[in-house]
From TrEMBL:
Name of this protein: Organic solute transporter subunit alpha
Superkingdom of origin organism: Eukaryota
The keyword Ribonucleoprotein appears for this protein: no
Transmembrane segments: 31-54, 66-87, 99-117, 157-181, 193-215, 236-256, 276-296
Membrane topology listed for this record: Multi-pass membrane protein
Compartment(s): Membrane
Presence of keyword Membrane: yes
A Pfam family per the record: Solute_trans_a
UniProt keywords, alphabetically: Membrane, Transmembrane, Transmembrane helix
Length: 326
C-alpha cells in the first residue's frame, strides 16, 4: 500500500483484539513482557494484602480503613491496568474503575491527615488560633493575595465537602457513562458537540480540580506538624499516583487519538495507545506500591503521645493556676 494511504489501512480502524487473539499472536518478546508485567501486578496485590494484615493488627481502629484505602490506590490501578492489557476491549471499564477508586482516595487522604492530628476535635483544638492558606494549587496557586481563612468547624466541613463531592459525583458519572455507552451515546473518541463524552469528561475534570484543592490546603496546614509521620513523602506518593494515572494516561490517549502513536495490527492507533499507557502504569504502580509499603508500615501512631501530652497538660495547668492565684 502507498505510504500516503497508510492511515486508511482497515487494520488500523478495527476494534481492539480479543484476549484469545492476543494470546495466540504473542511472540517470545511479548510472552516475556506480558509475563513480567502480570507478575508485577500480582506481587503488588500480594504486598497490599500483606499490608492490610499489618494495618489490621497494628493500627488504631479509627485509621484502619482510611490507610487501607490510601494504600490500595497503586495496587488497584496496577490490577485494572493488567486486566486492560490482557482484555483490550474492557479498557474503558478498567480505567473508569481505577478513576472511581482514586476519587475515593482523594477524600480518604484528606481524612487521613486530620486523623493523624487526632481527629476533628483535636485538630480544631490545636488550630484554634490558626488559619488556612487557600492560595495553593491547583486552583489558586497564582493568587497570593487571597485572604487566609480561620480554622473553624465550618471551614473544616467545607474542605471535607469539597473532596467528598468528587468521590460521590465520579461514581455517579461513571455509572451514567456506562449506561450511555450501552445505549450507544457514550464513546471516548467521540468529540462531537452532540456526544456525551465531550460534556461529561470536562465536567469531571472541573470536579477533580475542586477536590484536589482542599487536600492541598490541608497538607500545607499540617505538613510541619506531621513531618515526623512522613506526611511529605506520603503526599508525594499520592500526587505521583494522580499524575501518572490521570495526566500521563490522558496525554498518551490524546496522542493516540491524533494518530501520533502508530498502529500495529491487530492494535489500532488508539488501542495501542491504551496498551502503552497500561503497561507503563503496571510498572509505575508496582514501584509505588513498594515505596508506600515502607512509608505506611512503620510505627507512626501519635495517639499515645497525644494522650501523654493531654495528661501533662492536666498536670501542668493546675500548678500554673496555683502560682497565678498566689
Amino acid at each position: 500500500m502507498d505510504v500516503t494511504n497508510q492511515t486508511f489501512d482497515p487494520r488500523c480502524r478495527q476494534q481492539p483484539p480479543l484476549a484469545i487473539d492476543i494470546i495466540l499472536n504473542l511472540d517470545l518478546f511479548g510472552i516475556i513482557l506480558y509475563s513480567i508485567l502480570t507478575f508485577m501486578a500480582a506481587v503488588a496485590v500480594l504486598v497490599f494484602i500483606e499490608e492490610c494484615v499489618y494495618i489490621y493488627r497494628k493500627v488504631p481502629a479509627n485509621k484502619k480503613s482510611i490507610i487501607i484505602w490510601v494504600n490500595g490506590a497503586a495496587p488497584i490501578i496496577a490490577t485494572m491496568s493488567c486486566l486492560g492489557m490482557w482484555i483490550p476491549r474492557a479498557t474503558m471499564f478498567t480505567d473508569m474503575t481505577s478513576a472511581t477508586y482514586f476519587a475515593v482516595v482523594v477524600f480518604k487522604f484528606l481524612i487521613l491527615m486530620i486523623e493523624e492530628c487526632g481527629g476533628d476535635e483535636a485538630f480544631l483544638k490545636q488550630s484554634a488560633k490558626k488559619t488556612f492558606r487557600i492560595s495553593t494549587g491547583p486552583c489558586c496557586c497564582c493568587c497570593p493575595c487571597l485572604p487566609r481563612v480561620p480554622v473553624t468547624r465550618r471551614s473544616l466541613f467545607l474542605l471535607k465537602l469539597g473532596s467528598f463531592q468528587f468521590a460521590l459525583m465520579k461514581m455517579v458519572f461513571t455509572i451514567l457513562s456506562i449506561v450511555l455507552w450501552t445505549n450507544g451515546n457514550f464513546e471516548l473518541t467521540d468529540l462531537n458537540i452532540t456526544g456525551a463524552a465531550i460534556w461529561i469528561n470536562p465536567f469531571v475534570g472541573v470536579l477533580t480540580i475542586i477536590a484536589l484543592w482542599p487536600v492541598a490546603i490541608m497538607f500545607m496546614h499540617v505538613r510541619i506538624t506531621l513531618r515526623t509521620l512522613k506526611i511529605i513523602p506520603k503526599y508525594a506518593m499520592y500526587q505521583l499516583v494522580l499524575v501518572l494515572s490521570q495526566l500521563q494516561s490522558a496525554i498518551i490517549n490524546i496522542l493516540a487519538m491524533n494518530g501520533t502513536v502508530a498502529c500495529a495490527p491487530p492494535y489500532s492507533s488508539q488501542a495501542r495507545g491504551y496498551l502503552m499507557s497500561q503497561q507503563l502504569l503496571i510498572l509505575e504502580m508496582f514501584i509505588i506500591t513498594l515505596v508506600t509499603r515502607l512509608l505506611y508500615r512503620r510505627q507512626y501512631d501519635p495517639l499515645p503521645l497525644a494522650e501523654d501530652d493531654d495528661e501533662k497538660e492536666k498536670m501542668v495547668l493546675p500548678s500554673e493556676t496555683i502560682e497565678n492565684t498566689a
